[in-house]
Amino acid sequence: MIKLLSVAIVAGLFFESNQQLVSGSNSVEPADEKRGRFSYPFLPIKPGWPCYYPTHIQCWTDWFDRDDPSGTGDWETLYNLRKENPGKICPKPVDIEAQTLSGLSVAAAGEVIYKSDTTVGFACRIMDQPDKKCEDYRVRFSCHPPFCGGGVCWTKWYDRDDPSGTGDWEVLSNLRSENPGEICDHPLYIEAVTTDTLTPAISTGEIFSVYNPTEGFVCRKKDQKDGKCRDYKVRFGCPCK
What is the pLDDT of residues 110-132, one digit of tens each? Predict the structure, then answer.
């Protein structure tokens, strides 16, 4: 059984258009930088945003550098980054990475870091440093598609097969042959859902012999306990042109 390493489970099934870029944003309350206190209750999240749903895909956003260490320090806070870069950071990042503009990691830079997390963001305070200086940092966040750096555009949905024979075979090579020029040469992600209830494939309890963006999707009847496969449709996440 092929391990499902590159499966985008984006349960907000919201746009059916070809090569459509999806984006969303969220914001938090401002940071009180002078006192070093942060408050961050989340505002409501719009239904259908892909980061609001479970997924096996993680990717890094673009790098952000909103502040210079000329005042009290370098403040790359999520609130301000979201405000200045709407739709580019998911509502709930799972990781953060910071480095100096010259490419040094935080550890290599050797400075005392006040904050570095996925709730507040990143902050280096001059007052915490022995030499009273902070390097200039940039940050990025680990999110789900479509918040990957460079953007992810989804194809339309494809349903080339019905599970009337040996199963449901939504194979990429066949989809390309039947839909010339519609699917990029190197898809990054794949999503599969049932055609009737739009249930994500991974939530159906069925076993898949193929489910990856380089080969496509296959549900074989012989692999199922009841000898049946549901009818699925698929789409692919491609780099945005």
Answer: 999 999 999 999 999 999 999 99
Q: Going along 126-214, which residue ranges are E strands?
A: 137-143, 152-154, 167-171, 189-194, 210-212
CB within 8 Å of 170: residues ≥ 6 apart: 158, 159, 160, 161, 192, 216, 217, 218, 232, 233, 234
Q: 216: how many CB neighbours lie within 10 A of its CB?
A: 24
At 45, phi and psi to the nearest 5? -100, 135
φ/ψ of residue 82, rounded to 5: -65, -40
How much is the pLDDT for 2? 37
Residue 232 in contact with residue 159, Cβ under 8 Å? yes
Write out the two tokens for 31.
């940071």
| Type and span of the H or E element at 83 | helix 78-84
Spatial contact of 115 and 38, defined as CB atoms under 8 Å apart? yes
The overall pTM is greater than 0.85: no
For residues 35-46, give the mean pLDDT. 31
Q: Determine if residue 155 is left, alpha or beta; phi over 0 gives left, psi from -120 to 50 gives alpha, anything else beta.
A: beta
> SS3 of 52, please?
helix
